[in-house]
Amino acid sequence: MDIAYIPSPSRGVLHLGPIPLRAYAFCIILGVVAAVWLGSKRWVARGGAKHTVGDIAVWAVPFGLVGGRLYHVITDHQLYFGEGKNPWNAFKIWEGGLGIWGAVALGAVGAWIGCRRRGVPLPAYADAIAPGIALAQAMGRWGNYFNQELYGRATTLPWGLEIHKTLPDGEVVNGVFHPTFLYESIWDVAVALLVIWADRRWKLGHGRAFALYVAAYTVGRFWTEWLRIDEAHVYFGLRLNDWTSIVVFIGAVAYLVIVGKKRPGREDPASIDPAAHAEAEAAGEKAAGDRAADEKAVAGTALAGKAAAAKAKGEGPSETVAGDKPSRIVDGDGDAEADPQPAAAASTAAEKTGKDAENPI
Q1: What is the distance between the alpha carbons of residues 148 and 336, in angstroms, rounded to a whole number?
Q2: What is the predicted pLDDT for the residue at 167?
Q3: Residue 356 CB burial class (10 angstroms; 0-12, 13-18, ≥19)
């Protein structure tokens, strides 16, 4: 009886005419979008402006990509430098090879620059985007699946990953291996959910939510790294990334404990984002303007209704010929009283003497 394993894709790139669409890059882009979306929602919930996370990500993402690639090239330099190697391959990021530790380290530098420009505290920003980074990693790991890379040891488990590929040195790989990309992807989703839950439960602030993400991620990365069989530097029986995970885990836990004692709770929402105040003021001015316009419209409508009602009852002034004085309506009747002024004038003229009549004033 054949066991149904996880098949690998026959290729990781599609061509739209001369333009290659690479699944690896597509997975990374989706991860960035998800991180910014989730981070923005969390930032607004903390009292920040809705565009702040995206504006700072413009700095953090490029720095993170460069840092991730540098870490990979430095720690796996034997793949690109030396006899028979092509150093230009170090720039082929679409073929895979991004080190998460370099991405986080240099990405933090880019985020710091963006935060300084907007007057935002970096720890508060890091707390908001922490679950989004884990979610982005979960999506990005599927790029390894499409590239058929970073798989683990051989296995007969039913969820084993079938690999059929030719390595750059000409070696052909055919077999079933641990899908370490899938293990880490699932673990990253769990880390994102853990950080969201813990943040709601304990109101983590001052960088502690980010520290929790780092500590939790390193635990999963340690055992997935231990399963992998791709070429790596080994020191005292452990791969380099395992040692990195241990050091980073200790640092993250220490940060959680120390900062938790010194600065418990979260930052004051009014202090984390100056842009939020500007948005609130603009929204208040707009709301005030809208209210004034609504009140004016209501007053105009009421006045027009009152005038229409008065006209329907016959209480308004009658139409007159230009130059004539309007007649006066009495008690709603349509008949107008005679204007007393012409009668008075006639009486005065009749009382004048003939001499006076001949020489009017």
Answers
A1: 100
A2: 77
A3: exposed
